[in-house]
Design goal:
The protein is α+β, with helices and mostly antiparallel strands. It contains 22 helices and 14 strands. The strands form 5 sheets. Strands 7-14-9-12 form a 4-stranded antiparallel sheet.
Length: 641
């Protein structure tokens, strides 16, 4: 909007006015840029050293003091910008120049640069507002729709990150609170401590948001309504207050007030233990070797307990007086240090850790206490160590016992079989074959064979999940059978549940020529040979994936071999076979009559192709019920006559 009309100003006077306006603009930009750079430099400083005259040591200036100074300088930038803008507006008003005319170019350039700077500073926020996700901006999605699935992998990974942050606080807060020298800036790790403190605090704050947006199951359905989820989170007041208290910045407030740091004020970060338990319990359910994971957790607990007890010992030594007697920490209970080596921070911590290890393990090869308070501390520490290690040893023992339970049960079965063989005076050759078979079963982890196949292991699962597991394991194997290649998936799903695993030893006959066929076999692993009756001549070798005996399951009328085996089959080595019994097949076919007719028709085609079918035979063999029905009809006709 123009302040005054410019028609009364001669055209020749506009050039110097524009030049002066441009000079004001450049001065404005230059001053603002200088002060902004100075503020950014102060904010981004990693640490500022300040000498302490009382101790002649150098400490880190509290980080909030630096940030406050930077913010103050940034406010000065805004004040300077406003003052120069007012001066420029007054200049234009004095000479009656429109800000959109003679000074319009300069003003537009200033506004354009300011807009570009604001755009760069707020780029992340603008991206959240402008980018769409299913028709909704990401910012609106986060505010009103974002819900976390507690069963998703990303949620489990987030729990792992929170657990790492908690372990950092658990180990470092007590260490930095007790060993004061760790706060000296000359100590190498102080910069890393400050950085990790900020990172873990950010993780805690983000976890509060994650917990308030974590869905829950209602009647088996994941609730994704933001209001319901947050309302449920507020109802659980204990967890909500734990989250809030754990995020209270007592240490930062202390730094602002007293201009110094105190790690003791970070102990409130340790109350979020339930998130760690949730992560460890979930991990125990997911890992393939839970016993090994439990042993790892127990070892980690031992190290943490020894660490805390070491810090407690050094703290008590400081309270009672360093180097006041042999029991507390001091030169008296240290071994003679080589010349030139000082009593460093690492040595003080390692000695405290060594003392803690001896006390909690009840070795007690430490200096005897002298004061009454020292005796009390030692007694409490010893009792605490006894309870801890009794619990640990008990847990480790139960883990080892559970891991060896399968082995003990297996060995008990072997002992029972051996006892039976001795009582029946079985020859040594057969006993050796049985022992070899047991050894192969154990080495190949086929314990389920002795437990009534896999049914006992999977019996706790619902039938639908059992079928899916069986389909995943056996479906492709069953598809290889030419008799079942065109069967519908429902029938195959029934049949895969019927497959059983059997293991044959070297030299065992799976079947002999002339035996009644009641099973179909699929070679999973190993090698079989089709041999003559005496076993001397080898006709054919069956490898992995081969199928035999399937036609004997169908009772096809006109088969020249009937239900008898047409050849003898012998195992070359240890062979794993999937077995489908005839009774199981016919039980499944009761619900699939069309599939039954299709299988019989396909079986007849296979026999006809191989020249093993009598074509004059009926297409379908009559069942006993059909024979009884025809017999009754004939009797009724005779009686009527």
């Amino acid at each position: 909007m123009a302040l005054k009309e410019r028609k009364h100003i001669p055209q020749g006077r506009l050039a110097p006015l524009r030049k002066h306006s441009k000079a004001l603009e450049e001065e404005n930009i230059q001053k603002g840029q200088e002060v902004s750079n100075q503020a950014d430099q102060i904010i981004t400083e990693a640490a500022i050293l300040e000498p302490d005259k009382s101790t002649n040591q150098t400490y880190v200036r509290p980080k909030f003091k630096t940030i406050a100074k930077g913010l103050s300088l940034m406010s000065r930038v805004r004040v300077a910008d406003a003052a120069i803008n007012r001066e420029q507006q007054a200049f234009f008003s004095k000479y009656g120049i429109s800000t959109t005319s003679c000074g319009g170019d300069a003003q537009n350039q200033v506004e354009e640069k300011q807009n570009n700077n604001n755009a760069n500073n707020n780029r992340g926020f603008l991206c959240l507002k402008n980018v769409n996700l299913n028709g909704v901006s990401i910012w609106e999605y986060i505010r009103h729709q974002l819900i976390f699935d507690p069963f998703a992998n990303y949620y489990y990974n987030w729990l792992g990150i929170v657990t790492l942050a908690y372990v950092y606080n658990l180990m470092l807060i007590v260490y930095r609170s007790v060993f004061i020298d760790s706060q000296v800036v000359g100590y190498f790790w102080i910069g890393i401590f400050i950085f990790l403190d900020i990172v873990t605090d950010i993780i805690y704050l983000l976890d509060c948001f994650v917990r308030s947006r974590t869905g829950y199951l209602d009647q088996g359905i994941l609730v994704r309504d933001v209001q319901k989820v947050f309302k449920r989170y507020k109802k659980n007041r204990i967890e909500m207050w734990i989250d809030l208290i754990a995020c209270l910045p007592f240490d930062y407030l202390f730094e602002l007030g007293l201009q110094t740091t105190n790690p003791c004020l970070r102990f409130n970060r340790l109350i979020r233990l339930q998130r760690v338990f949730k992560f460890t319990n979930t991990t125990e359910m997911c890992v393939s070797k839970p016993n090994l994971y439990r042993i790892f957790c127990v070892c980690l607990y031992i190290l943490i307990l020894i660490h805390w007890n070491a810090c407690f010992y050094y703290f008590i030594s400081g309270v009672l007086g360093i180097d006041s007697n042999r029991w507390v920490y001091g030169k008296a209970n240290l071994q003679a240090l080589p010349e030139g080596i000082e009593d460093s921070l690492s040595r003080r911590y390692l000695y405290s850790y060594y003392w803690s290890t001896l006390m909690l393990s009840n070795v007690c090869e430490v200096p005897w206490p002298i004061r009454s308070s020292e005796f009390i501390i030692v007694c409490v520490d010893l009792m605490f160590g006894v309870l801890i290690f009794a619990t640990i040893v008990g847990n480790v023992g139960s883990m080892i016992a559970s891991s060896e339970a399968a082995r003990r049960d297996f060995q008990s079965r072997i002992d029972n079989v051996k006892r039976f063989l001795r009582q029946r005076n079985v020859n040594k050759n057969l006993i050796q074959r049985i022992n070899n078979w047991f050894d192969y079963i154990w080495q190949q982890n086929k314990q389920a064979i002795l437990d009534g196949q896999d049914d006992l292991v999977l019996s706790v699962l619902p039938t639908k999940l059992q079928a899916e597991i069986a389909m995943h394991v056996h479906f492709e194997t069953l598809r290889k059978v030419r008799l079942f290649q065109d069967c519908e998936a429902g029938l195959l799903g029934e049949l895969v549940l019927k497959l059983k695993l059997q293991v044959f030893s070297p030299g065992d006959f799976v079947c002999r020529k002339g035996d009644v066929g009641r099973e179909m076999y699929i070679v999973k692993k190993g090698r079989l040979q089709v041999v003559s009756d005496d076993g001397m001549k080898i006709f054919h070798t069956l490898l992995e994936g081969a199928v035999f005996g399937e036609l004997s399951l169908l009772n096809i009328p006109g088969s020249k071999h009937g239900n008898r085996r047409s050849a003898s089959i012998r195992s070359v080595g240890y062979t794993d076979l999937f077995v489908l019994k005839k009774a199981d097949l016919w039980e499944a076919l009761r619900e699939y009559p069309e599939a039954k007719r299709m299988l019989v028709h396909k079986g007849r085609e296979i026999l006809l192709k191989d020249g093993l079918l009598n074509e004059d035979a009926p297409l379908e063999e009559k069942s006993p019920e059909q024979w009884n029905q025809e017999l009754r009809e004939q009797i009724d006709r005779l009686l009527d006559k």
